[in-house]
Design goal:
Elements lengths: L8 E4 L3 H22 L2 H22 L3 E4 L3 E6 L2 E6 L3 E6 L2 E6 L4 E9 L5 E2 L5 E2 L2 H18 L14 E4 L1 H21 L1
Helix pairs in contact: 1-2, 2-4
Length: 190
């Protein structure tokens, strides 16, 4: 490749944040209504259930993403995170979503990244309209190929980084707080 992509990029579902903001507004309305019609105590008893739904919406629609830079990629599917250097990738494709095949033999589908390839379409002006998913695949593939073409150590130790899998501990911590709060709310109301 003759041109190296510059800067890190994060790809996620385009509607995820909009859905979360709309649901957060509804949650604020519901909790505010509980304060106005009832009391602060009632709102505190209802809040964990509203927050649990909001947490689920966050995990389903926002948290899944693909982050790429010059050294490798970080993929988060729901609460599972995978980080790897570009030299760990053996194949890269875009089917229904971006798919990495890693050198440990496992395939990693990116649920929050770009979606299915659509056919390029011609505009009336004769210009070709390339779908965003195809542009994203081209960008990610260019980063991968640039990292592989450089000698080991030239890209940085991150390109040779091992595959690391972990959990999204902050999101799991928030879930634990909500579950404890819900348990307290149940204990108080019984």
């Amino acid at each position: 490749m003759d041109q190296m992509p510059v800067g890190a990029r994060t790809y996620r579902a385009p509607t995820g944040i909009a859905v979360l903001v709309a649901c957060a507004a509804i949650a604020v309305f519901l909790l505010g209504d509980a304060v106005i019609r009832g009391s602060w105590g009632l709102m505190l008893l209802l809040a964990p259930w509203v927050l649990l739904v909001l947490w689920l919406i966050y995990v389903i629609s926002v948290v899944s993403m693909v982050h790429v830079d010059e050294e490798g990629a970080r993929v988060q599917n729901f609460l599972r995170r995978t980080r790897f250097g570009w030299r760990r990738v053996t194949e890269l494709d875009l089917r229904w979503q971006l798919d990495f095949t890693l050198d440990d033999g496992r395939s990693l589908a990116c649920w929050g990244g770009p979606g299915r390839i659509q056919s390029p379409r011609m505009k009336r002006s004769g210009e070709l309209n390339v779908p965003q998913s195809l542009q994203t695949l081209t960008d990610v593939r260019a980063r991968w190929e640039n990292a592989i073409e450089r000698p080991a150590g030239a890209v940085g130790e991150g390109a040779d980084a091992p595959i690391r899998r972990s959990w999204d501990w902050p999101a799991l911590g928030a879930l634990a707080v909500i579950v404890v709060w819900a348990a307290i709310a149940i204990a108080v109301t019984r």
